[in-house]
Amino acid sequence: MNKFQTLILLGLIPFLFSCSGANSTDKINTATNHYINDSIDTVIVKNEAQYPDIDKRYLLGKINPQNDSLFVVVPSKYCLMRTEYLHKDALEPFIAMYEAAAMEGINLGIISAYRNYETQAWLWNSRYVNSSNPTVAAKTALKYIAMPGTSRHHWGTDIDMLNTKLNFFETEEGKKAYKWMCENAPKYGFYQVYTQNRIVGYNEEKWHWSYIPVAKEFLKQYRAKISYEEFVGFNGCELADTLNVIDDYVFGIDSVLLRSL
Length: 261
Description:
Elements: H1 3-11, E1 17-18, E2 26-29, E3 34-37, H2 56-60, E4 71-73, E5 85-87, H3 88-102, E6 110-112, H4 117-127, H5 134-141, E7 158-161, H6 172-184, E8 190-192, E9 208-211, H7 212-225, H8 245-250, H9 255-258
Antiparallel strand pairs: 1-3, 2-3, 4-5, 6-7, 7-9, 8-9
């Protein structure tokens, strides 16, 4: 048994999610259409003492991963576009998941992992179009792009994999890969946070998966430490409070994961 398997067994409540089927003891989460084992009441329990106090700079993506011991570089074999960084506790589970999928002909190559505040601002500004109705412009951008300071990618726990084009998941290759992820990713601690049928938040993202044992600690401390005054320096930043981006987008995730907070 390797290191990450020991961590999962000792630190987590065993759980299984499935997008395509369920055992007789499973029930369906009506908010997400995901099947959940009856034993899951508080999803993903981990020793919280390991992350007693997370500095706001980490929560907001205002650090340089190249010079920070909390982050590690992802070997190029696992990256599709460029050099990527992950939270140090997420790398080994990701590699194990990647290799398991590869044995079934599925490439879980990373498209995007850690993104800092400045990179997120560039992405946001490229999608936010100044117009006579800035609120509508911001809501349009928020379908898939987070405002700087509100992205889970700031934490190094979240990964865009496979393909970020919606039509990919309508192909046989895309359906096979997504089905594999739904059935197997939780075994490695990864979960799709932006599932379908949520009331608020971003559109569904079948490519975006989060290493929950760490990400849940970042999210828990985010609510206590981050305020709207933090969101500055990008187009439309003054709309963050009006659009309720903390409650509706940062916390607009799958309802099952909110139960673990």
